[in-house]
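Hey, can you fold this one?
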Amino acid sequence: MKVSIIGQGYVGLTVAQGAVSAGYQVIGYDIDSNLISELSIGKTHVPGIKMRILKEKMSDGSYLPTSNSNELSNSDIFILAVPTPLDNNHMPDLSYLISASELVSRNVTKDCLVINESTSFPGTLRNLIKPIFDEIRVHEILFSVAPERVDPGNVTWNLSNTPRVISGISDEAVKKTIEFYSTFCESIYQAPSAEVAEASKLFENTFRQVNIALANEFSLLSHKIGYSAHEALMAASTKPFGFMPFYPSIGVGGHCIPVDPVYLTKTSKNLGQDTPLIDKSIEINLTMHRKVVKRIQETLNHNLSGLKIQIAGISYKSGVSDMRESPALQLMEHLVNLGAIVSWHDPVVKKYNNVYSTELGVNIDLGLIVTPHDQIDFSIWKSSRVNVLDISSNSTDYGWPKFI
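Sure. Predicted structure:
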């Protein structure tokens, strides 16, 4: 059976590995020719991908990374795994999903199943994707949705053992989708409708957005009263029921938490329903870096002009190089605007916007721990007694008290 996966990023490549390992012939399509070239020689930046397996499958012809849409013909299953980001106005951008759907519709050559893994509004499968295919009357096309749950860098939960939520527009679509994912996913949950499956993904990450905002607000209050928010959270975490710890941060990043709640609020507003809690949570997290900088100014007597500040870790999450929506970028921009001389050290990212990572230095006025990758050795800061503030969003002790 031939499976074509549109998009070979974090989601698409992960699914490609699962499908090809289950014995499918997989076409990994992406418009990024540089990404395809890297894959073709066995290189990828996606954590958790076993390139040895994919190279073996490339050798025997069962996995083909390509930017040639002609390779998509005669596919039994098409999977849409493309970004659904926010635009420059912080509004949902479905252009990649629309383009991917149009691409697939032009390359359908027989009866097939179309599965959407890309996160979007409830109703996207039925009201946006399916109509693009409706003009095709020669072949029977089934439609289903299986929202992605890829967590880059997570060594505990992966494609295989993370439960997969699926649904579809017809019973036959649901049946075939369950049959497909069951070959490489251990647990399948069938949602009662495509809209329920789509909404579940949005709620998962809105839940995290709201609770991170709560932790951030709690941190601001804790500072005013004079105790450590982290110490209070650690104490609260001893409760074995009814509590889940979230930690304060300079904001949220990645392709899910900053984005999915906006898709949910946009849907709600289109229906005339306000979402004040979600809206406020988004606002709190988007502006948290400014509040943290204000506290840094207070700690350093309000003046950052001319100070040499080095940031440790600039990606949105430890262990990954993904820079999408990384709050470290807003932090750096704000510090520069205040006159600080900012550099960064990130052995995972290495290069961003033609700027290279610098080694951790001792000739600085302040070190900021933002995204502490395992590869970062803080011993040079410790031994040199560099002034360091830990503003990372976890409970790990790196040798300095948590600042937020």
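The domain at 225-390 is CATH 3.40.50.720 (Rossmann fold). Let me know if you want another pass with a different chain boundary.
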